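Researcher: Re-running this chain for the archive, since the previous output was lost when a drive failed. Same request as before.
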Amino acid sequence: MMNAPQPTVPSALLPEILEFSPQLLLDDIINYANEAITNTVDALEGFLFRWASEREQRVKEDWDSTQEVEQGLVAFQTLLESHTDIAFDFFETWSLRNIFAVPADLPVVVPHQEHLDLECPPERETELMTEIDELRRKLDAQRRLKRLLTRAVRLSSAKRQRSERRLEQLSFLQAPQVSELMSLPEQYHSMFTAVSSLPPLTPEAVAAFSQSPLADPGKRPWEVSKMGYLDWASKQVLARAQQSDGGAGSSAVGSLMESTAAVATTQDLRRLMEASSALDNARTTRQADHDMS
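Model: Regenerated structure tokens:
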């Protein structure tokens, strides 16, 4: 009576341990053996055809050597393949039962499963799977937050570039000439406050201001009004100065205008006065809040 085969490790574990499938290895060995048989028969076929042709020339009898050689080669190849299949079937069975068989009572630990608790209860496994799902949700939330932060960084970078361009446009306020304008007399602040408090001009007032009285054609410019006399006198003085200095007065006036433009333009002065007024109003409001508290 033959002994019953001992229980072995499941075949699904062997490829994980060996990092290759034993069945595929045995199939490759059998294929190499069949390939060797085919190569042997092909080499023998050439030898037999040469032998048959030499025998026909020597014997000179009516003999169909080609048909007999082909039939003999087919029979020989079939017999050889049959014996090879039987032999390698025994070799495959013996290898799987002896070489690639691990007893079930042998403690086998896969390297990547070392120090792992494989006897975990189902409740613990369910708890771990729930924890993994929670970690996946947190990871997905972190990825979304990263995308939002990246978008916010791009937006803040664009805003910073716009602010830098605005700062470059207002860089004239840092010029030394503008710092001199910061120390304006109090009369200029009072005048700016008074002008700012004036009511807006109505269309009727603008039309009234634009209509200047017509000059009397029978009177000379200095006889019309006081303003006409002052205008005529200033023109006379300017003409005499230009004639006496040879154009030096004109150049002096031009240099004065260039110096004034180098300090700041009218638009810059208006901005500076508005900024100064805003600072004064803020300071007054802060002082009033402090007094009330």
